[in-house]
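INPUT
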Amino acid sequence: MKLEIKNVAKAYKNKKVVNNFNMEMRTGECVGLIGPNGAGKSTLIKMIADIIKPDNGEIILNGTKITNMKKEIGYLPQYPAFYNWMTAKETLEFMGQLSCVKKAELTLRIPEILRKVGLHGAQNDKVGTFSGGMKQRLGIAQALLHKPSLVIMDEPVSALDPIGRREVLNIIQDIKKETTILFSTHILNDAEEICERFVVMKEGLKLEDTTTSQLIYRQNEDRLSLELATNDLVWIDIVKTLPYVKEVKVMGKRLEIMVENLSNNKKQLLSNAIEHNVDIMRFEIRRDTLEEIFLKMVVSE
Amino acid sequence: MNAGILLIKKEFVQMARDLRMVWLPIVFILLGCTQPIITYYLPTILEALGGGQGITIDSSAISQEGGEVLASTLGSQFDQLGIIILVVALMGIIQSDKSNGMLAFILTRPVSISSYLFGKVVSNYIVVVLSVTIGFFVSYLYVNSLFTMVPFSHFLIALLLYLLWVLFLVAFTLMISAIFRSQGIIALISIIFLTGCRIIVNFIPAIDVINPASLSKHASEVLATGTFNTSVIIIVFVEFIWILVLFSITNYWISLKKIDYD
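OUTPUT
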């Protein structure tokens, strides 16, 4: 499986929502598309699902235009639509048949997939009676039913309460082993939890395409964080004069110290502190959380 | 076309569950028997109400031929209240799928727009045809027992002509339902346009050939006069062209992917 997004652009009333977007994906990957609201995530996902036509560029799956590859795509919209008068089982039968799955295969697949998303107890209930979390899980079930080679999900957990969110995240963790997943979210913890690769979008442009570890490694400056038992102003002044210290930020009893070379300088700083008999509560290497990195990336530009 | 048949099945289940398959025929049965019964009992009603002081009612003078009464079932019942009811029943045919995202969702599957429309039109048209036919047949039975006999062949020709006009009605409402977002607007435009067409038939016979509603007038004429004007064949032909044009516009409109509203 190979998904290629080439120079895709889309504008609504002269406002560029997606701007020359390029990306590639291969089998087994799980890619999180992250960005603030209005970054163009949904529009991009809808273009991959072939709901919206791009103004420019093309989206190609396994060498064929996406329009002719609908069988290979499982799509979960942000608000999955169902017929309220159908039962969960009927919904999957209907959706499965639309995707050209044989009836005999469906009778085997449906109970299996309902068990996987935890809805087997509700298979004969009307969809109209389902909660948001249940609908989302049914949405995942329909997206996986025809064994697509690529599953795309638009904000799969954003509209759910913490319990529903947890349920859905666990299911995605589970299905990730078998399929290739592309999903959008503005909640970073979710993306961090599920996927290895991130594509960061802002105002229709691709800002970053990287892995979790790379992102954290690259964006980090060498910083030490200290917490002192008392506000030792004398020592702080000494630290400021040290040759390898670039900057010191004081926040009450907490210090953030930027040094030239973390691995060498941390020992020097620690021994310096012991020399001056400083009462240290905590001494650690400080790393930005993904959220801080994301905020820096998205807000700064 | 496999998807089309699947969608037809789905529509039937839906129409059975929301009881449209029950109420639509009932409404047309009521419309169908109204005209013969009212016409038959009108003299009695007028007499009983006593508003006829100084008016002599000669029941034999106003007795109508069966064919005329059956023709006015089409003209006065089906083409007035009937159109409104059909439009109201059909106004959500695409709009409801569009507004809740189901249309976009279905089209992410390997389903072509034409098979989607095929499924919608065939299933809904079948139910409408059944309703109109049953209603008209009930009217036919009443007319035969209360007035003079109408030959069954006249009934059948009139019905077929009328059903073609109804197909135009279905296709037009389908198109409007695909284009507009609000059910109220859809109903308003469809009702005004369709009843407008029907009214124009009486005033501007010159454009009969291109007026889709003229088939309804010709159906009435077959019943009232018993003659079949051969020029109707051209009108039937034009009607089919109209219907094809409406389907193509609907298909094209949906293919523009204006189905997404977020």
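end of record. Residues 103-116 of chain A form the longest helix (14 residues).
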